[in-house]
Structure formats: C-alpha cells, structure tokens
Amino acid sequence: LEWDIKGKSRGSLNQVSINFKFLLKTYIQQWPARCLFIFCLPLFLTSSWSLRACNYKATIEHISMLDAMWLFIVTFTTVGYGDLTPTNYCGRNVAGITAMIGLLSTAFLVSVLSQKLKLSRSEKYVHIFVLNMQMLKERKNHAANIIKFIFKLWLLKKKHQPTSNEYIKAQRELVRSMHFNQQLKLGQKKLVDSCIGIPELVVIQRQTNDQTCENTQTLAIMKLKMNKIEEQLGEMNHAITNIQNTLHLLLNRISQ
C-alpha cells in the first residue's frame, strides 16, 4: 500500500498514469525476449489446438497435433508452403488471425533486434573517432598531392610547356585532389554533427544554465559593488562640499 501510494503520487506529479499499460511497456522494455516467448508459447499451443479442432480430413477426422503445429508455424512465419491448408471457415479464421499476430510479432522482433544491435554512446564515439582519423589521413594525402601538383605545374610553366599533355594531366589531378579534399572536409563536419545527440544537447544545456547562473551572480555582485561605489562617491562629494564651505568661511574671516 505504501509503495502504491508513493508510485501514484510520483506518477501524478509527472502526469503519468501508473496502470497495466504502463507496467506492460516497462516489462517489454526491460525483458523483450522473455515477454515475446511468454506471449508466443501459449499462442502456439492454443492456435495449434484450434487449427486441429477446426480442420478435418476427407475421412472426417481431425488432423494430427504435429500437423496442426506445422500449419501454425508456416502460417505464423508467413511462409505458407501449401502442403497443409485450412479446410473450413473456422480454420481459415484461425489462420488469418495467426498470420496477423505473426506479422506483428515479426515487427516487434525486428525492432528489438535493431535496438540491441544499435551502438552505445561509447561505441559510437569510438567508431566516429576512427572514421575521423581515416578522413584526416586521406585529407593529408590529398593536401600533399595538391602541393605536389601545384609545384609540378609551376615547373612545367617554367619550362614553357603550358599546353603539353603532362601539364593538362597534372592540372586535372590537381582539381580532382582539391575536390576530394573538399568532400572529406564536408564528411568530417557531418560526422561531428551525427555525434551530437540528445544526451550531448542535455549536457550543453546544463553547462549553459550553469554558466548563465554564474554570470547572473557575477552581475549581481558587480551591481552591489557599483552601488557601494556610488554611495562612497556621494559621501566624497559631500565631504568635498563641506571642505569647500569651510575654506570659504576661513577666507572670508581672513579677508575681514
């Protein structure tokens, strides 16, 4: 009861209703393979028995349980070899429902596998780092080729061969190296952009908020110091005014 009250209070604060749907999503998220197995095993047994109960042979006998299981498997996996088929509307309805559930289960299995095969943050960082190093090495090679072809064009121009085949070939290689270098530069920028996800944005936002709070506190302290300086300047101005008045009185007495 205490856990139930705490859970409901937390859910109401977060505007989340803690019900069977929420618990089902939680269990599927934590144990997808176990949930799929628990769902498919009773479905396999129930549907196999239903197919056996609905289908008859020409001798008005039920098909065997093994044949019913085989019919369920080929229907559930949407293979459908055609060696066994439902003979009446009841069996066809069961087969249609089984095929629909099989499609949904296949989609669920694909989503679970894609989630399991997805790279983690650290693995993604390592992969992007390796790709970035490869691109950087290729950029250095193309930059060296650019310098080499520019120097080669300069030598050919000095030898008064600006229209030779070698000059045209070197010019073409120079343009190609410059193009590849630009493409690699754009690829590196895309790699950096792909590395930024929701966790990185959250970290950046948190750092920005901390920096904003520090700047706000610094501005408040500076404002207090400015107010103190203004008060001190006012006191100094008042003191200077008093000194001036005193000097005027002394000068007046001396002049008298």
UniProtKB/TrEMBL annotation:
GO terms for molecular function: small conductance calcium-activated potassium channel activity. It comes from Adineta steineri. This is Potassium channel domain-containing protein. InterPro entries: 2pore_dom_K_chnl, K_chnl_Ca-activ_SK, K_chnl_dom. The keyword Membrane applies. GO terms for cellular component: membrane. It is found in: Membrane. It is a multi-pass membrane protein. It comes from the Eukaryota. Its main location: membrane. Belongs to the two pore domain potassium channel (TC 1.A.1.8) family. Keywords: Ion channel, Ion transport, Membrane, Transmembrane, Transmembrane helix, Transport. The keyword Membrane applies. The chain crosses the membrane at residues 31-51, 63-82, 94-114. Residues 43-117 form the Potassium channel domain.
